[in-house]
From TrEMBL:
GO terms for cellular component: cytoplasm. It comes from Nocardioides lianchengensis. This is 7,8-dihydroneopterin aldolase. The lineage of its organism: Bacteria, Bacillati, Actinomycetota, Actinomycetes, Propionibacteriales. GO terms for molecular function: dihydroneopterin aldolase activity. Residues 5-117 form the Dihydroneopterin aldolase/epimerase domain. It holds the Pfam family FolB. Belongs to the DHNA family.
Amino acid sequence: MTDELAVLGIECYGHHGVFEFEKREGQTFVIDLALGIDTAPAAASDDLQDTVDYGSLVAAVKIAVEQDPVDLIETLAQRIADVCLLDDRVEWARVTVHKPDAPIEATFRDVALTITRRTPRD
């Protein structure tokens, strides 16, 4: 059985986008994470070493968003999922990248892409 750990609304400033001004000026991206993990070991031990340290994970996600500009949020979402899956306890990661300031010539609230990736099992 897999439990779900969620961290929602991680605000990051990145320089991603197809247009040159997006790379130059940057904009806010908001990241939502959901991770499939077994929390039973941590519940039994009450020890941080037995679970995913979401503070460290958020720091790693911020670094992933704030470095190395890419054109597409699809690429950014995959990068973030890869960071989440580095911990062997994470069975799957669902990542949503929100780009609320996307350069669209219309009134809109948000642009969001959600991907789900699994850890490859041998």
